Amino acid sequence: MSARKTFGTQPCSIARTLDVVGDWWTLLVLRDVFRGAHRFDELKSGLGIATNVLTVRLKRLTDAGILERRAYQEHPPRFEYTVTAKGRDLYPVLIALLQWGDRYMRDESDPSDAPPRVVVHDTCGHAIQPAFSCPHCRSEVSAQNARTVARADLPRELRNARSARAPRRNA
Amino acid sequence: MSARKTFGTQPCSIARTLDVVGDWWTLLVLRDVFRGAHRFDELKSGLGIATNVLTVRLKRLTDAGILERRAYQEHPPRFEYTVTAKGRDLYPVLIALLQWGDRYMRDESDPSDAPPRVVVHDTCGHAIQPAFSCPHCRSEVSAQNARTVARADLPRELRNARSARAPRRNA
DNA sequence: GCGGTCAGTTGCAAAAAGCAACTCACCGTC
DNA sequence: GACGGTGAGTTGCTTTTTGCAACTGACCGC
Which residues have CB under 8 Å from A83's CB, separation 6+? Predict the structure, then answer.
């Protein structure tokens, strides 16, 4: 019947997020917007994506409030796409994918196949490898020392994470 | 012609990673394996995924070295799927998706729609919201204060990030 | 020997993706 | 002032992928 199921109704934030950005192209479109490609044609030629697919992706992303579509001239109408605050907050997802790919998806037989992109932290000016860390004890968080549990299973006094506060305007 | 393009040939770690885990189902399968679902049937009924699609996804993930397929009994042959070290390192991707969904994908009109899962850090025992931080200056990394640049564009003395060292066996 | 469980396979219909060609409104230029 | 080029798509057609349902095959308990 349907060629895709919706995950949006699942009571799980991962499923709901994937419902919006979980397909092959969407995150790559976002990656290029982060890198400064804002126009339809830039995205098209940079990604090698079919125009009809790009049209649909851009519409979905703007409908979801992740991108913003703005006319930068009127005659003829021309548009540019920029990330909203909501879209900016997807940056960690891209960083996480980047780091995993850097570690595992390189061609080991090709010595020239170094990761071509590095993350630069403006605050301190260094090329870095950001890592998830615990705001409480500041040590690194990985699948080895963390797990997710149903909120209901947590002892009441440990439910101190204000998970999902209202969308922040800045930072 | 083809209904999907391969990103694996792009010289970009994000693209290469999405080539493996970038579709609608793969990361959800992985999520459930992290949560302790290891058998075909558990995954099937937990996800509501079609069996043929699950078969293909599990095969892709084991071929990619992200999951491991092990017979847990011989007669009749029964298998279980567990994450490898490579698969475990995808945990940050799921965390990143979880946190974004917690912030943006809740139903604001439904007060009972709290995020049902929280991350617990075994090391300190607290429910936490892990954040990407810079190992150098320890401040939070976001799209606001970081960007990716082509490695070649970096001043030589700042190329101090050993990005993508060989796969670690532990931690 | 009957129903139940596990781990799939097979077959078919519907949706999505790829590709190529086309549109429409302008803009610069020869 | 016709000619080519650019930006942002739309349309049409074909190939893949997904969803769904039904079926298989080996065993197990009763």
Answer: A30, A33, A34, A66, A67, A68, B143
